[in-house]
Design goal:
By secondary structure, the protein is α/β, with parallel strands linked by helices. Helices cover about 50% and strands about 15% of the residues. It is built from 14 helices and ten strands. Strand 3 and strand 4 form a beta hairpin.
């Protein structure tokens, strides 16, 4: 056994041992925490492909906010998330006030969903905005504020998102200490910013997350394994780093399986061990990321993707349309759907690329998928 436990955490949203290639991305946000209401960094949007580390960045923002004494409400844009945010604001308000309202009683508790249904006397039934104002004024009195984060906005009801944006804009106009960070797939974020209901979000600090540089991954792997006394030659470290493509989730997966190999072989990593780790990471990525992403794709969408997989890098829409026997208008509809699903990305006029690492190879191995 190695003297320390495996530091890699290949689970969605888990905090990695090191956030590679993200230095400085939260500087404006942290400055905003010090300045308070209206600071540009307190309104941010993270975008990027699946597995690029959007949820991890939200977690890093949570940690920074808490370090500065801010309250944090973290939600995922599924179901009636505005109601869940409202209930959490209500709890915080009672915690910061003079204690629980004697007229308030809990009528139901749902442990699995962390939801609480409350019943208030009629005179205490305030709307969402008034509740938020009450909480923010209490926090302002304590020289702190509230950060709300909403992940996976591609799954959100647009009405709820517009309501949240409108209320936060109202809080900012009133000089209240509020921060809002969204995270989602690029196409969903682009659609949101182009909708009139969320015009003020165009002023948000839009942070596009990209793959880390391979040299940075290589350096991180080398430092982590050396510190743990794991013996591995530079060539194998480089090969492992290249296999990640610089994608945070794959970095965690490959690192995790490299560590497992070292544990099973007296703290050393042979060339065969690195091959096994890369293969195990690839299989896990296919199951957890790729197959999940393909689950909602139609047969025609998959035909489009298979037509793309013929190319080694960028695909042109003209070539894809020809391969699937579709006109440019019909192929364009498939393109729009796949962009929204986060399976492909634009690469210039009339060009697309795969948005998920390993998707091309998976489709080539599974021609009927």
């Amino acid at each position: 056994m190695l003297p320390t436990e495996n530091p890699f955490r290949p689970t969605a949203g888990a905090t990695p041992p090191e956030i590679i290639g993200r230095s400085g991305l939260l500087d404006e946000f942290e400055y905003g925490l010090r300045l308070g209401s209206g600071a540009p960094g307190l309104l941010s949007i993270f975008t990027g492909a699946r597995g690029i580390g959007k949820t991890v960045m939200l977690g890093a923002a949570h940690d920074l906010a808490k370090e500065h004494g801010w309250a944090v409400i973290a939600e995922t844009a599924t179901g009636t998330f505005m109601g869940r945010i409202g209930e959490k604001m209500r709890r915080l308000t009672h915690e910061l006030g003079d204690g629980p309202d004697p007229r308030r009683r809990v009528t139901a508790v749902t442990v699995a969903g962390f939801g609480v249904t409350t019943q208030l006397s009629p005179e205490r039934q305030v709307d969402w905005r008034e509740l938020g104002e009450t909480l923010l004024r209490l926090l302002d009195q304590r020289a702190t504020g509230l950060l709300i984060t909403v992940d996976e906005i591609h799954a959100a009801d647009r009405t709820e998102l517009s309501q949240l944006a409108a209320n936060v804009q109202h809080f900012i106009q009133d000089g209240l200490p509020i921060g809002l960070i969204f995270a989602g797939l690029p196409s969903a974020v682009s659609d949101l910013l182009n909708e009139g209901v969320a015009t003020f979000l165009r002023r948000a600090d839009k942070i596009d997350l990209h793959a880390a540089a391979i040299r940075d991954v290589e350096s991180s792997f080398a430092d982590t394994f050396t510190a743990a006394g794991i013996s591995v030659i530079p060539e194998n470290i480089h090969r492992a780093a290249v296999a990640t493509g610089g994608y945070p989730f794959l970095i965690q997966l490959v690192g995790y399986f490299l560590w497992r190999e070292a544990e099973n072989h007296d703290g050393s990593l042979s060339s065969d061990g690195v091959d096994r780790a890369i293969s195990a990471a690839t299989r896990r990525n296919e199951r957890v990321v790729i197959e999940a992403a393909l689950a909602t794709a139609s047969a025609k969408d998959r035909e489009f993707l298979h037509a793309m997989s013929v190319d080694d890098e960028t695909s042109t829409m003209a070539d894809i349309a020809s391969r699937i026997g579709a006109g440019s208008a019909l192929a364009g509809k498939y393109r729009i759907r796949l962009l929204a699903a986060g399976l492909i990305e634009t690469a210039g006029h009339g060009k697309v690329v795969f948005a998920i690492p390993g998707l091309r190879e998976y489709l080539r191995k599974n021609p009927r998928s």
